[in-house]
Amino acid sequence: MSVSWKAYLIDLDGTLYHGTRIIPGADQLINGLLEKHIPFLFVTNNSSRTPAAVAAHLQGMGIPAKEDEVCTSAVAAAEYIATRMPDSRIAPIGEAGLIEALQEAGLTMDFEQPDVVVQGIDRNFTYETLTRAARWIGAGSRYVLTNPDLLLPSQEGLMPGAGTLSAAIQAATGVKPVVIGKPSEHLMNYAIARLGLKHEEVAVIGDNMQTDIAAGVNAGCGTILALTGVTTQDNLPDFVRTSGVKPDIVCSSLQEVQNVICGHK
Ligand SMILES: [Mg+2]
Predict the structure, then answer these.
(1) Domain boundary, last residue among 179, 207, 226
(2) Which residues, 6 or more positions from 88, have their beta carbon under 8 angstroms from its beta carbon?
(3) CA of 134 to the centre of ligand 1 (A)
(4) Mind listing the pLDDT tens digit for each residue in 5-31?
(5) Please, what is the average pLDDT of the chain?
(6) CA 205 to ligand 1 center in whole angstroms
(7) Does position 190 have pLDDT exceeding 50, yes or no?
(8) What CATH number corresponds to the domain at position 100?
(9) In this structure, which residues have their CB less than 5 angstroms from ion ligand 1?
(10) pTM higher than 0.85, yes or no?
């Protein structure tokens, strides 16, 4: 098979690794892209880690990665706010990855009367956090959500994600956030702009139909589904039905992904 995409946006958890365990072929896939000089970016909904921490996590598993190859939903959220609401004052609810991204974008923090509440995963979220968010948004602050994931896998079992915290804020305010991460096209648009390519020249590689593949379709990109995580040959038809999208290419392993995208050059 031969494909004509010029660059790739690659999901992380479930596509290149599970937690701290590398998925077979992930290191060869990235090395293959580097050898063929095929541009790519790592694109993750996870807002808790900084790009430097994501790159270090990948390197720790033997996957070559540089900080400037990582796009997080936190960095895309900061860029979204800095571009569209440049002088706004921000109240972040989140972890280091989000706080650092907002600071790097030159945004000003304001915990009294913010123009924008931007929320990601916050493992120190309390009743007080919810109260403050509800009051700020109730008083007219815009509401930006880094990513809508409800649950995250972890070594100990499922953990509530940013989307679950957001459900509480939405219940308290009746306000729907602007969503940046997958399946929204905003994170993809940010990553595509960094590549400097047209949407149709780029393909998304991921394991999740409802986030990765839906985001790729929403952004007008190609899509490659890797059956390395959430989606299996057996549940794929169900996901096609519930997500309403279909991947351009389905690969059962990362070796197959590599053959598809590196084989033709
Ligand atoms: Mg994934």
Answers:
(1) 179
(2) 81, 107, 114, 115, 116, 142
(3) 30
(4) 999 999 999 999 998 999 999 999 999
(5) 96
(6) 9
(7) yes
(8) 3.40.50.1000
(9) 11, 13-14, 207-208
(10) yes
